[in-house]
Structure formats: structure tokens, C-alpha cells
């Protein structure tokens, strides 16, 4: 590839320079499908990130220079992004829903990667980037080793290729918790004595899909093919995926932003309250009006935005909140309030993650008592489902809440969905909401 040759020329020029610290080399490149390019690569980790919104920047990250695997070490990420350079490093990764728990193998409670190689699309411009962290020039052996490691990674790059086809098949489905267990959990949360101290708990379900021939090369699911098709049906969402090893992948088309920080300006949101779409404009408008007027869903959203505002208060000089509006997705409609804030000087991403994650939209309110109930009673490990996934840098950081997500491993697909349980919640209606939330991806699988 000509792009690799041009970057290698820049790389060779570094041997005659005195530069040290973080360095990003880049060249323009032509790539049509980022996911097709990603699926063709052999370097791990393999990470994909596309933000929500009109500009929709798109990233692929490959390999690693450095990574962090403990939640408390995110402070070091914040420190490292403060280097005095035209380009600051971008870390891609996530926090589990409950970072105090061990989490999934490969993913753990926390994993952030500074990649060796990035593919970046902003508008019409696509760049191939090579990242280095160079020691001082007098440490000649280490300096040369870093250059050689970067060159080796470039040599492994493969040209873009078509994504493997996504074959529909028959799946055996098992829900955890079961329908009977779900009814019991909802009854516990809606009991008056429980509501007196914990007015909202977000209960969730894992739906495991298994197939006898899922290990067959002809029918095995490519996570990147699934994500590409899913994204076409979820244009209004964040699209992202993490594959730290060949054995398993986590992908998501999430409608929910945890936050976006540009300098000291913060955008976040309260996304809670759900109703279906019918595919008919008049019926959808009537359903949206019903959602806006529904006391149970308004309560659920109010608990979320009140908690977010209270958590931002010590970190911000100003906050603002919009009235609830309708966010229309392909099959669902949600209540959404937009929140903006101006952050106090010195506030960093670690403080924002600690304050905002997990939000009451995926955990409950008050946070600690809701999380205690989930830890004790939910019969599976959420892992990165409903976690905070995104990108950190000095200039801009953005995180999505990893709902509408799937874990692909061991010839099986695990789909996740949650529902906010408050006073007045009915088990059957909430169970149906869980089904509605996985219907989009299920329609692609079989």
C-alpha cells in the first residue's frame, strides 16, 4: 500500500530528529468501508467507534502502545493527554457497568487502549495514522525499538476487503432472568417498603442465542458484519465495537450519550421512558403524545435528570436542562432531556466518569441502593453492557452508554436490554419492552 510507504518515509525521518514523547504520523488514504478495512486486519485489539450526530466522525484503532486496566488509573490517561503537542493521544476503551466487579474476561472492569494505528474519517477526509511514544533520543536502544515496533505494525496492515455475509439461522434462545424470575424482581422493586428508599431500579435481561452450527466457518457470525447491518437500521445512534482477542467481541448501536466534553463545555442527556413505534406517522404521533403524558415514564425521566444535575453541580459553574422531547428510533421512541454544563477549571474526564457513570437510566436512583439491589439479585454479570464506552483525548472526549449491545463469543450471541422499574411498573409490560429493545438486532439474525 502506498500509504504505508509514505508513513515509513516519515518514520525513517524520525531517526534523524530529536523529537520525543507522543508522535502521530499521518497520510491521506482512500478507504470506503471502515468496518470492511477493520475486519481484514490481523492486529489486536481491534476497535471501532463512530459518534452520533451530523458530523459523525469515524475511527478504527488497531494494536496498542499502552493500556490501562484499573478504573483508578484513568487519572493517568487524563494526565497523559496533557502533553504539549499539536496532536494529543486518543485512548479508546470502556468501563464496565459496575467497575467494582471483576467483569468479563478480556474486558475486565476497565480497559483503555492507546492504539498503534488509527484510521480516521472527518467529513470527506480519511487519514491513516501511526502513533509512537518515543523516549529521549539519548536512550538510543529504546528509541530504535519503538521505531521498529511501529514499522512491524505497518507491515501487518491488509487492504480493505468486503465484509463476510451475515447468514440468518435458527437460534435457540434462553433468557436470564427467566420470565418467572423477572416477575419476582419487579414485584420486589415496586413493593411500597422498597420504593420508600429506592424509587427506581433498572432491571436487565441477557438473551443468549445459541446454534448447533454456530462454529461452522460458513455460519459463524462476524461481529463487524453484524455491526455494519445493525448500524444501517440505527442511524441515530453511536456505533462501536471492541475485540481485544479473536475469541469474543462486544458491539453496540446505542442511542444514549453519557457525555461529550469539548474543552470545558459538556453535553449530556437524560434518556429514560420508552414506547414503541408503529410504522405509521399518525399512530407514532399519538404514541409519542401518550409517552409525553404518561406519569410513570415522566417520573422515570425526572429521576434520571435530577440525579445527573446533582452530580454535575460540584463540577460545573453553570448547567441547563431542556424540556423532555421525543427521540425517534427505528422501532422505539424515548423521552429525552438535553443537559449542558460549563465545567470548572481543572475538572477532568476521570471526575466526569466517576460522577456520571452509571446513570440512573441504566442503574437506578439513588445510585448506591439501586446498584446494591442489582449486585445481589440480578442473575448474570452485565460486564460492559450498560457500561461507559468511548474515547478520551485532551481536546475532546465522548462516551456512550453501551445499551442496545451484544457480546459474541463461544458460538453464541448474548443480547442485552433493560427497563426502568418505578412505582406502577407492570412485569408483563416491562418484559415486552425488553423484547422491543432487542427486536432490531434479532431481525438481522434469523
Radius of gyration: 22 Å
Which CATH architecture of the largest domain would you pick?
4-Layer Sandwich
Distance between the termini: 38 Å
* Tally of individual helices: 12
Tally of domains: 2
> What is the C-level CATH assignment of the largest domain?
Alpha Beta
What general outline do the C-alpha atoms trace? globular
- Please, what is the CATH homologous superfamily of the largest domain? Anthranilate synthase
Total beta strand runs: 22
What are the low-pLDDT stretches, counting only 5+ consecutive residues below 50?
Answer: none
Oligomer: single chain
The CATH topology of the largest domain turns out to be Anthranilate synthase
Helix content, binned percent = 25-40%
* Helix-strand category: alpha+beta
Strand content: 25-35%
Largest sheet: 12 strands, antiparallel
Mean pLDDT: 92
Q: How do the strands and helices of this protein lay out in sequence?
A:
Elements: H1 2-14, E1 21-28, H2 34-39, E2 46-50, E3 58-62, E4 66-68, H3 74-80, E5 91-95, E6 110-114, E7 117-122, E8 125-134, H4 140-155, E9 172-176, H5 179-190, H6 192-195, E10 200-210, H7 223-232, E11 238-245, E12 248-254, E13 257-262, E14 265-276, H8 281-293, H9 295-312, E15 316-321, E16 325-328, E17 332-343, H10 349-356, E18 364-365, H11 367-377, E19 388-392, E20 396-401, E21 405-409, E22 412-421, H12 427-445
Antiparallel strand pairs: 1-8, 2-3, 2-11, 3-7, 4-6, 5-6, 5-19, 7-8, 9-10, 10-18, 10-22, 11-12, 12-21, 13-14, 13-20, 14-17, 15-17, 16-17, 19-20, 21-22
Short characterization:
The protein is built from twelve helices and 22 strands.
